[in-house]
TrEMBL record:
Residues 207-262 form the GHMP kinase C-terminal domain. It holds the Pfam family GHMP_kinases_C. HAMAP family: IspE. NCBIfam families: ispE (TIGR00154). It comes from marine sediment metagenome. It is an enzyme of class 2 (transferase). Coiled coil: none annotated. This is 4-(cytidine 5'-diphospho)-2-C-methyl-D-erythritol kinase. Residues 56-136 form the GHMP kinase N-terminal domain. The keyword Transferase applies. GO terms for biological process: terpenoid biosynthetic process. Its EC number is 2.7.1.148. Keywords: ATP-binding, Kinase, Nucleotide-binding, Transferase.
Length: 283
């Protein structure tokens, strides 16, 4: 635990193919006149669980661009978010969308922001946002903003299963402070396994220390993990602050078996794959 309320973490992060889709429109303000929405940021979304105001990390990212580059009085921004990534499910959907917002607005306004500057802005928005700018396979430390790029994992199929439960990261970390057990960090061994391409050792050692806290409220996590392993997944773990479980498979047939096998146990199941980057920009 740190003075700023964040937690020190050591986490290996991996970008995958499941994504939301964001559309941006830049509008010039007429005669410098601020419209009825004084902040000039308009967000729409197909998921009613998503806040459309300052609570949304996309809003925070857009506001940082407008304010840091003196664009607030000249422009308004319309952003539509088409959600596919489950919400509050440990999948960094909000962080990824914030990263996409920084990159898209940099391009749309022709700002040519330096990598260090855009990374600092990302860090201001949220702990996972710097990783989401880049993606790939990365060791995240500090509160998530200290990133060490690792060799990309090879292509694996990934099945994600969630029962629709929503767990806020800060609440999960808060419970971990109360009842969690801090275990010896194995991040050095995991990094070494990736460097040496010892993937079976790597997958055999994977663990998520937050899981012990989340399974108190959501025991299905253990059932889903066990079922995925039974069906041939090479690894199955809770992702992030939960409650989503990811299962890795190295061939499509096994991946489809796991995908179908987890459907009766979960409200939503996705078939995805590892990816060497996290954002794609279409103009």
């Amino acid at each position: 635990d740190r003075a700023d309320g964040y937690h020190e973490i050591k986490s290996i992060m991996q970008s995958i193919g499941l994504s939301d889709e964001l559309t941006f429109e830049i509008l010039k303000r007429k005669n410098n006149h601020r419209s009825e929405n004084k902040n000039g940021i308009y967000i729409t979304c197909n998921n009613e669980d998503i806040p459309l105001d300052e609570k949304n990390l996309v809003h925070k990212a857009a506001a940082l661009i407008l304010d840091n580059y003196n664009l607030r009085d000249k422009y308004s921004i319309r952003i539509n978010i088409e959600k596919h990534i489950p919400v509050c499910a440990g999948l960094a959907g909000g962080s990824t969308n914030a990263a996409a917002t920084l990159v898209a607005l940099d391009k749309l306004f022709n700002l040519n922001i330096k990598v260090t500057d855009i990374t600092n802005l990302a860090s201001e928005v949220g702990s996972d946002v710097p990783f989401c700018l880049k993606g790939g396979t990365t060791l995240a430390e500090g509160r998530g903003e200290k990133l060490s790029e690792l060799p990309h994992l090879p292509f694996y199929w990934i099945i994600l299963a969630t029962n629709g439960g929503k767990f806020l990261s800060r609440e999960v970390y808060g419970k971990f402070d109360l009842i969690g057990v801090e275990k010896k960090s194995i991040h050095k061994e995991l990094v070494n396994n990736i460097m040496e391409k010892e993937f079976s050792d790597f997958f055999g050692k994977l663990r998520n220390d937050l899981e012990d806290v989340v399974v108190i409220e959501d025991k299905e996590i253990l059932v889903v993990k066990e079922k995925a392993s039974e069906l041939g997944a090479i690894a199955a773990q809770m992702t992030g602050s939960g409650p989503t479980v990811f299962a890795l498979c190295d061939d499509l047939k096994t991946a489809l078996d796991v995908y179908e096998g987890l459907k009766p146990l979960s409200s939503r199941v996705f078939l995805s794959h590892t990816k060497p980057n996290s954002l794609t920009v279409y103009s």
